[in-house]
Design a protein that fits this description.
This protein is mostly beta strands and 410 residues long. The chain has a domain of 270 residues: Methylamine Dehydrogenase, Chain H, CATH 2.130.10. Helix content is 4%, strand content 35%. The protein is globular and about 110 Å long.
């Protein structure tokens, strides 16, 4: 039976015997090629038109920001392997007598250990090799530098009032934050590593968490610039000094002033809290270095060794030595047990503007000068162990050691 026009089929009588009319057969299925077929007919090829080039000015506005930059090699400093190796050898070595001598060859790099492993040899921590220069987008003076407690980032405080965070291993830029309305002059971490306090030119003091979240502001802490800050060992108190001639002791939790120490006749440029005791040391524009009782606010002693402004005062980790430096280009070391000067260090040609003790070697410290030079010193040696006369083009305002003691930022 042939299938024809459907309308003609409707006019035909139904067949006898109860047979039903069958519909048209399904269309013939076309054989599809398999995915692995290599010989395809022309009808299976899908011709895709080549993409047209965009207009010549399609990205004209954004092109200037996407120019190709020259490939440069970025140095990175990774101390993880030294710490891991130090932990491993401590299980089999008693002390430094069992340690193998480090050879001055590239192959001996795998045997390097952190600074804490060479306490008997401070020369292993001389940070005299230049590694990297980091430039801020906003070109202005950097007044203070501070490593985070973990050493993974570096924080700089600038003349524009900005915090800039840099990576601690590759030294690339990570974040910038408008922290203060005026120039930042001082920053310090608490000993429990949870809080940072900063001060600015307007006399304001701010509290920061370790995620850079500002939680408290005291805009009237001082009448003039906050030059330095320091925490006590328990972190319950901290002290500040200012160009308003005062040193103030603060209750950290309440951010309230407990007492004001007035004894300097001029600007107070630096202050530092004793590592274990309730004892403060301060230096100022009146050429004096003073010791204070933080509990009573009483002045204990004054040192008259400097002939000009005292810019820096720093306690040693042993709690017995005080290091001072000033505009007379001299660094002095005092012993508070005998209340006398132990040693003077001469060599800088301009004002000594920054000091920093090494975190592990108590006899090793670094100084920075107004002419951009950096000197490395050892107590007991009159001359510098390392002299970097052109470390910076301009003044060195602050120096900070990495927490592990192998890297110096200035």
């Amino acid at each position: 039976m042939m299938y024809g026009d459907p309308q003609q089929q409707q006019n035909q009588p139904h067949p006898q015997g109860g047979e039903f009319q069958r519909g048209p057969p399904p269309p013939q299925m076309m054989r599809q090629p398999s995915a692995s077929s290599t010989t395809l007919n022309s009808e299976y090829h899908h011709h895709v038109a080549a993409p047209q080039n965009p207009p010549y000015d399609a990205h004209g506005e954004n092109f200037a920001a996407k120019r190709m930059r020259k490939m440069t090699q970025r140095r990175a400093v990774d101390y993880t392997s030294t710490v891991v190796r130090y932990v491993q050898i401590r299980m089999s070595q008693r002390d430094s007598r069992d340690r193998t001598t480090l050879q001055p060859t590239p192959a001996a790099a795998i045997d390097m250990l952190p600074a804490a492993a060479y306490l008997d040899n401070p020369s292993t921590s001389f940070a005299a090799k230049f590694v990297h220069t980091s430039l801020n987008k906003n070109r202005c003076s950097i007044n203070c530098v501070l490593w985070t407690p973990t050493g993974r980032r570096l924080i700089t405080g600038s003349q524009s009032g900005e915090f800039t965070l840099w990576n601690g291993q590759s030294f690339n830029f990570e974040m910038i934050l408008q922290a203060h309305d005026q120039a930042i002059r001082s920053m310090v971490w608490s000993h429990n590593d949870n809080w940072m306090v900063s001060g600015d030119d307007g006399g304001a003091i701010k509290y920061w968490q370790n995620n850079m979240n500002n939680v408290k502001v005291n805009k009237s802490a001082h009448k003039e610039s906050v030059r330095d800050l320091s925490f006590c060992r328990t972190d319950l108190k901290f002290c500040s000094c200012s160009d308003d001639t005062t040193v103030k002791v603060w209750d950290f939790a309440r951010c309230q002033e407990e007492r004001s120490l007035t004894g300097h006749g001029w600007d107070v440029k630096s202050v530092d809290w004793h590592p274990t005791k309730s004892l403060l040391v301060s230096g100022g524009k009146d050429n004096l270095v003073k010791l204070w009782d933080a509990k009573t606010g009483r002045e204990l002693c004054s040192f008259h060794g400097h002939k000009n402004t005292v810019f820096c005062v720093k306690w040693n980790q042993n709690g017995n030595w005080v290091l001072t430096a000033g505009k007379d280009q001299i660094i002095k070391l005092y012993d508070i047990r005998a209340m006398k000067e132990l040693e003077s260090f001469r060599g800088h040609r301009k004002d000594v503007t920054a000091l920093s003790w090494h975190p592990f070697h108590e006899e090793y410290f670094v100084s920075g000068s107004y002419d951009g030079s950096i000197f490395h010193w050892l107590v007991g040696h009159e001359t510098p162990q390392v002299d970097l006369p052109s470390a910076h083009d301009n003044s060195v305002w602050d120096i900070s050691w990495h927490p592990i003691g192998y890297l110096l930022c200035r």
